[in-house]
Amino acid sequence: MRCTVHVALLAGASALAFASFASGQTTTNPAQTNVDVPQATASTAQATPEVSKLEEITVTGSRIIHSALSSPTPLTEVNAADLADVHPTTIGSELTDLPIFSGSHGLSTNPGNGSLTTGPTAPNSSASVLNLRNMGSNRTLVLLDGRRLESTSPDGSIDVNMIPQMLLKRVDIVTGGASAVYGSDAVTGVVNFITDTHFTGLMVNAYTGLSHDGDAFTNDEGLAWGTNLFDGRGHFEVSFENHSDPDVLLRSQRQWGRDVWTVQGAGTAADPFSLVENTRISTSSFGGLITKGTLSGQQFASNGVLSPFVNGTPTGTPGYQSGGDGAYSNSSFKSALQLNQLFARLDYDFTDSVHGNATFVGVYDRNSGVATQNTLTNVTIGANNAFLPAAYQAALATAGQSTFTFSKNWLDVPPESTDTWEREYMSTLELQGEFGAGYHWDSWYTHAETRQTTRENTNINNEHLAAALNAVVDPATGQAVCGAALTNPGAFSNCVPLNVFGPTSESQAAINYITSPTQFLAIQTMDDVSASVTGAPLHDWAGPVNVALSAEWRRLTDELASNATPSDAVDCTGIQYNCSSSTLLWADGSTPDRSKVAETISEAALELEVPLLANQFMAKNVTFNGAARYTDYDTSGPAVTWKAGLDWQVNDQLTLRATRSKDIRAPTLNELFYPVSLSTFQVTDLLTGQNPLVPYQGGGNPKLVPEVGYTTTAGFVYQPEWLPRFSMTLDGFWITITNAITNIQGTNPTIQDVCYASGGSSPYCLLQQRPNGFTDTSPANAVTKWYNEEINIASQSTTGADLEANYAFQPFPLNLRALVTYQPHLIYRQPGVPTVDLAGVAFSANGLQAAPVWRATYIATYKPVQNFAVDVMERWRSSLAWTGVSTQIVSMPRISSVAYTDLNLSYTLTPGDSTVQVYFNVQNLFNKQPPPGAYLGANGAVGYFGGFVAGDDPIGAYFTLGVRAKL
């Protein structure tokens, strides 16, 4: 609950994140975990620290361990109310403040990165997706009240914006493998969102926010209500929340965006990579540049009038300059989010030993963003084009030239922009109870469905474009018409000729003719039936041996429906230029239709908790925890996972713990069965130095098998008697993933280098097509097609440690907390490709985000007077290298470290039995701008990708004013 004051020193967890610091109070015993303090005035709360109740809460990551203190697996327990205090926004954005979520994705993770298309994996590129250890979001399992969630996107990712927040109580984060307990995907950990199932009364939450630059105006309103029913045997609660977060439409709204940063060069000693400011594409302009013929090198800087093209300063890459008249994009750097969440739950005690509940979650959200400008790239224009002024037609005729080539970044034609609508529904029916001497049974059924509609708002119809570009004079009327309308009137009678000669030369009618919205609908469903029995069938010399037996059956389906597919045919009859049988109908990526595909998963699991020693010297309590699971996928085969852990409580001050696990991630239906798809892609061909706009083909691979992960954790919990109210945890982690499913992209610079170094013999050369093999470096041999492929080929590994320290001063109410993650290695291995360590690297291929070696969050809470609290949070990351490839040469210093300071001021009123808190929050208090950065493999993505490192703050200072009330 956001309004209820929760206090706890979660000393048994591996990270005790954010619990209690907002209230400035602490419990008298730091070992008391998950304690609710009764609502009271500040003076009463300080004078009366005793607790009202101590609930038994099962630890996420185990079905039989009931305290984080006794969990061998590192566990972060995050109080939802306290997260909202320091960062009032969506829960996904709040969680990314934790250092363990390096590489997570959100609204400001470079939304204009080119994935805002109806492309092969069909993601929502603005979704809030959690990623533990930067090992891949698909390897982080997300649960709601211990129940698996259906993916919200065909790529298998889960947008945690679907989590209902008004009644969210806490978030448990297992930072170790847990597939033996929860099944596939729990390779790097589990994030379990826990709702408050006993809430009564009325709760109101509302806030509004505005950036330092006067944009990104945010509103959030929420209501929650709960009541007991049927003389206390039942309970009902419901919540609704609306969140409106508009995008920051253009990068030019920030100074770092106006600087248009890219990295250019070849990465060699002779031509090292360098950071370029004010980058321009020198082969195109906003008014149109003639690129071949007697008029070559001239542009239409104003409508219908040619003038010399002014070149900028050369960079290390042909076709790209700093300054000059060249073009660039101006995309979004923060996507829009419109979010509505509905949650309802009914609980009922059928008997004293049988309890049931029904839960419904319904979520609607819409993301919007702008990617790159629509462009013309070396299109052929007839010398007698009806819109070309007579003087220029005469010059071409004198030169004996019947055509010329032309490139343009459109200003009048709207840029590529995408809207994504997600509708998620989940219903769960659960029965649980007790029998015999302390045995507990639990069973549930969940049905979930996600419908994601992704629309490219201004997709270019290449057939219409080719027809419209060839504008001729109608001999009957003397008016400009499409040539195809005269030669093939049956197909092109409605064609509107397109004037491209100038920055604002296009008519709206012509724009409407060449553009059209295209969209696809992705539908995923999940039916999940599970049952478990827990209890202690025997005792050994040290205590009861707890056992949990569980079984689960799931059926997943996935289907796609599109109104723009790669098989859409073009009709070139009557079109003179820019059309052939190989032309794709749609310029932006089209998604093929796919009938429903399905997979069924059957699982059985056993978990044991065996006490080994109790009340011995140097061994107050030693417990073994083990689990094993058999899983059978009817698509990718069987798998066995296991886990073994040891919890050694040396004494009341020191606990040691360690685990070893084998975990899996099964391929998604999308990875297995995605049909062959085509889009168009523009990236530098490193063999010829050209940057052609060519087809890009990908698809699924039904031969994929589950990935296998091995995780080791070891650490300790320290609560010294000599320093009361202090706790510290330190846990190391070692994770290795073999048989990793990897999307191998022919466009990847490293893949290209390996191919060219082999002279064409490398199998990676099959990921591209070109006319003359791999020895011809002339422009005529530029690549004509790229491919990507899903394959079990790679391995990943990482090592590091998580540290948390907490101290609550007394008698004055000051709480201090530090969370630190150290991750010195993040290694990717792939046959035939140099091994890369991406720890401490800013950018990489395959969508990998920044992976700082050090990430830290520091929190201080001070309550100088009654009812008034001051929270300060400092977020810091270490400096970053530009590349993890040792053979690549860069000429620029590392991207500097950066820290952001957040401030929250709150005042709490307690009229009667109600509690009202008013707060003022400032994110990025000092308006720190992100250090400039860009991806080495995206030198052609000028103005629509890069400019800052993912995870940094591109918004600047942001002010929020809000109120929370419990009535």
Give the total of beta strands: 45
Question: Between the first and last Cα atoms, what is the distance in angstroms?
Answer: 13 Å
Largest sheet: 22 strands, antiparallel, barrel
What is the overall number of helices?
12
Mean pLDDT: 87
Q: Give the helix level as a range of percent.
A: under 10%
* Gyration radius over CA: 30 Å
What does this protein look like?
The chain starts with 34 loop residues before the first strand and ends with a strand. The longest helix has 9 residues, at 390-398. The relative contact order is 0.14. The protein has a domain at 251-329 and 375-409 and 461-505. Mean pLDDT is 87; it is low at 1-56 and 111-122. The chain is elongated. The protein is mainly beta. A hairpin with a 4-residue loop joins strand 9 (218-229) and strand 10. The chain has a 22-stranded antiparallel β-barrel. The chain has a five-stranded mixed β-sheet with strand order 3-6-7-4-5. Helix content is 8%, strand content 45%.
